[in-house]
Fold:
Amino acid sequence: MNETELIELACKGREQAYTPYSGFRVGAALLTRSGTVYLGCNIENASYGPTNCAERTAFFKAVSEGEREFEAIAIVGGPGEGRTGEMCAPCGVCRQVMMEFCDPKTFRIILENGGGKVRTFLLEELLPLGFGPDNLKEAVPADSRK
Ligand code: THU
Structure:
């Protein structure tokens, strides 16, 4: 699975975006270490707060299917059906969810602007000094972790 293929799958995920309030449609394609890809889209809500971003949709689908090891995520987004040429970087909440399940030194975040421009970041670049499971290693007794 190369970056171009993963971006194409993110565009496919975007087709399902449910965005009656913002009209800002986002798609994500999350690649696991074993090669499976989980798609995600943003899912909005009339009460606004429960809105789920495309990235978290993909992560929660994968984790709920037993996946725990991830390589990369491609993200595409923009207003309306088309794309404006802007990249859609993950929000802070999604970066924190990535921090829970991914190695910040190797997990790649692939962004594409709709015009073929691709930029790839490591999670540690987008979430420097992130707080994650390792920070709680000493705090949580080993036998109560899962
Ligand atoms: N959104 C995402 O799905 N992912 C991002 O990385 C940024 C924002 C969604 C949430 C909301 O449905 C819409 O975009 C506007 O914020």
